[in-house]
Design goal:
By secondary structure, the protein is of the alpha+beta class. It is built from five helices and six strands, in the order H-E-E-H-H-E-E-H-E-E-H.
């Protein structure tokens, strides 16, 4: 802890000077006053009476000054405590900001690793399956869930075009049954959470279903980006460039991949 050098304030110095003056008056009052004091022709104070009265007055003045000094000191203490509290709040906010910036930097690196890992767009079902596996592992890591279900739904028929069910390595879980209609209508499907793709001008809807009740905003941003990336990959895979037929690649034989 940093050592603080004590420096007397102006108020302390002023109080000390006044106190010394009063104390000096009290000490030297018997010396200064010799003989009775005549206030009027009829009012004459004896030396002892006048000395006692003067000392009493000086003593009262010293008490009043001390109380005034004490009150000002308390005000300064309250102000110092307030400043210390404000400083602590600012330091806490600064620490929170630094932690948040650190988390954001990690998230940015995670986003880069997610989207820079795909060097080629999938041209077959196997290629799309590899992409699903890759993104499934990322989602499981982001939300710390036991499994993840990607499902691509035909917006017109509400039928499943294709889907991928991935689990955490070393574990196996039963396939979850989730209604496409509830996903399309954006209904709550407890105890699951799901996120859907954002593009509105497509005839498909990509959803990501997880076995958790709630996710954070940062997790939502991550998974939303992954879903949109899957949507893009699926559209490219089913484009005329890769598929001469007009039907979807999975339309005739929808299955899980």
């Amino acid at each position: 802890m940093k050592k603080i050098n004590f420096q007397p304030s102006f108020l302390q110095i002023l109080y000390l000077i006044i106190f010394i003056i009063l104390f000096a008056f009290i000490i030297y009052t018997p010396t200064l006053i010799k003989g009775p004091v005549t206030l009027t022709s009829k009012l004459i104070l004896e030396e002892e009476t006048f000395e006692g009265s003067l000392i009493c007055i000086l003593f009262i003045i010293s008490i009043l000054i001390f109380n005034l000094y004490k009150r000002e000191v308390n005000k300064h203490k309250d102000l110092i405590n307030k400043i210390i509290d404000e400083k602590k709040k600012v330091e806490d906010r600064l620490n929170d900001s630094e932690q948040y910036i650190g988390i954001m930097n990690v998230q940015i690196q995670e986003i880069k690793s997610i989207f820079n890992s795909i060097n080629e767009y999938p041209e077959t079902k196997d290629g799309l399956k590899k992409a699903f596996n890759f993104f499934g592992e990322r989602v499981i890591g982001i939300v710390n869930s036991e499994w993840v279900l990607f499902r691509i739904i035909d917006s017109n028929t509400q039928r499943t075009v294709c889907e991928h069910f991935g689990t955490r390595k070393g574990f196996s879980y039963n396939y979850p049954h989730v209604s496409n209609k509830m996903i399309m209508e954006k209904q709550h499907i407890l105890p699951f959470s799901y996120i859907i793709s954002t593009p509105k001008n497509l005839n498909i809807l990509v959803s990501c279903i997880m076995p958790i009740d709630k996710i954070t905003n940062d997790q939502h941003v991550f998974i939303q980006a992954i879903i949109n990336e899957i949507t893009k990959l699926f559209v490219i895979l089913n484009s005329v460039y890769y598929k001469k037929e007009s039907k979807l690649l999975f339309e005739e034989n929808p299955d899980r991949i």
